[in-house]
Design goal:
By secondary structure, the chain is an alpha/beta fold. Helix 1 packs across helix 4. The chain is built from five helices and eight strands. It folds into two domains: about 150 residues, Collagenase (Catalytic Domain) (3-Layer(aba) Sandwich), CATH 3.40.390; about 45 residues, no CATH class. Helix content is about 20%, strand content about 25%. The chain is globular, with a radius of gyration of 18 Å. Strands 1, 2, 3, 4, 5, 6, 7 and 8 form an eight-stranded mixed beta sheet that branches.
Length: about 220
């Protein structure tokens, strides 16, 4: 979830989001790294969007915080559209990170999914601002996988875990490290269709406001 600000003077469309981490595997350093990872990936295409007759440069401004004292009430009572809450633990029952639906502001991260520029945080952030997995997950011949393709996608060999593996065999699916935010991902946000108030503000996503307990093996 994020707040969108349209600046007609500067020709900028800025998307602000705060990532608040809690849980046994969360930390200040991790929160900063996750926010930087999201911001870097989503700004990589240097996209622009046309709204009415003018073009605007799209910029994501993502800030990360660690809140070890976060409570269920804090999440339930939050009304700030910039804030997203994620529990981070070493263990996740389904062995994957997830958010609480398309258009949401809460979720659960498995720690090792977040490390080494894995693109998991950027992918899950895409869900919070309204993007789903593409229907067709066999994208051989189409080049670099967009950020919203899920694990298990069939790609050209160069984007697989093992470039020598046959499709769908061990190592023969997309390595999520190879995903990138593409201009088409920005287009799919349909930023020109948002309703902006008199201050040029709008919202991407919605409040799911779910507190997560730590999963137990």
């Amino acid at each position: 979830m994020g707040e969108v600000q349209l600046d007609k003077v500067l020709g900028m469309l800025s998307i602000y989001a705060d990532i608040i981490l809690y849980g046994n595997a969360a930390s200040v350093d991790l929160a900063i790294a996750v926010a930087a990872d999201i911001e870097t990936h989503w700004n990589e295409p240097n996209a622009s969007v046309k709204i009415e007759d003018d073009w605007y440069d799209v910029r994501f401004i993502i800030t990360g915080y660690f809140n070890p004292a976060l409570s269920e009430t804090d999440i339930y009572q939050n009304t700030d559209p910039r804030i997203n809450y994620f529990r981070v633990e070493e263990y996740a029952s389904a062995n994957i990170s997830f958010v609480d639906g398309i258009n949401s502001n809460t979720g659960y991260f498995k720690l090792d999914n977040l490390l080494n520029n894995s693109t998991t945080a950027a992918h899950e952030f895409g869900h919070t601002i309204g993007l789903d997995h593409p229907e067709n997950i066999d994208i051989r011949g189409q080049g670099v996988p967009g950020i919203m393709y899920p694990r298990g996608t069939i790609t050209d060999p160069i984007y697989q875990y093992d470039p020598a593996a046959q499709p769908l065999q061990p190592g023969g699916t997309m390595n999520p490290f190879t995903r990138k935010v593409l201009v088409t991902d920005i287009q799919n946000l349909e930023l020109s269709s948002l309703s902006y108030d008199e201050n040029g503000l709008s919202i991407l996503g919605a409040f799911s406001s779910e507190w997560h307990e730590a999963h137990v093996p």
